[in-house]
Amino acid sequence: MTSEKTIAKSVAAAILGSAAALVSPAPALATSQYGCNYPYVCVYGGNGDWVSSNIVGRFRDITSGFQYASTNRSPFSVVSTRNDDTVYVLYRNGGENFDRVDCLLPNEGAFYNSTFRGIRIDDRPGCSGLGTP
Question: How many domains does the chain have?
Fold first, then answer.
């Protein structure tokens, strides 16, 4: 009788352990895209061909303000390998004397036929409160 109880407890523990493994949260995935490694946001110079374009800037720090570019690039592309963070892209269209802001969700990328001005990485989810820089 004791061995039956022991076997029953072992089976119950195995079932509960398997069930716990099924509902455990998955770990965050570190991703790499077009030569841009996690956890960076990369800026590429060129016409939007990320595969053959050179990375001209890498950013990884979460900041309350924009991290400005040391040199302006036009046109440019941005790729975010961040899994949970929103990226704000600061850019200027030709002929305009003011900056615009765009928002990229985690693991997104975009091409801009504009001049790159800066990046801000925000740990809040979603694209809210774009405002002006």
Answer: 1
User: Which structural domain range is residue 70 located in?
Assistant: 32-122
Examine residue 9 and state whether it is found in any structural domain, yes or no: no
Give the strands of the sheet with 55-59, arranged side by side. Answer: 55-59, 41-45, 76-80, 109-112
Task: Choose among 103, 107, 105, 106: nearest CA to 91.
Answer: 103
| Helix (H/G/I), strand (E/B), else coil: 112 | strand
pLDDT tens figures, 7-63: 434 434 443 344 333 333 344 455 677 789 999 999 998 876 666 678 889 999 999
Distance between CA atoms of residues 25 and 107, nearest Å: 19
Its pTM surpasses 0.85: no
Q: 104-116 pLDDT, tens per residue?
A: 999 999 999 999 9
115 belongs to a structural domain: yes
In this structure, is residue 52 part of a structural domain?
yes
Residue 49 in domain: yes
Distances (CA, A) of 9 to 1, 20, 21, 23: 13, 16, 18, 21
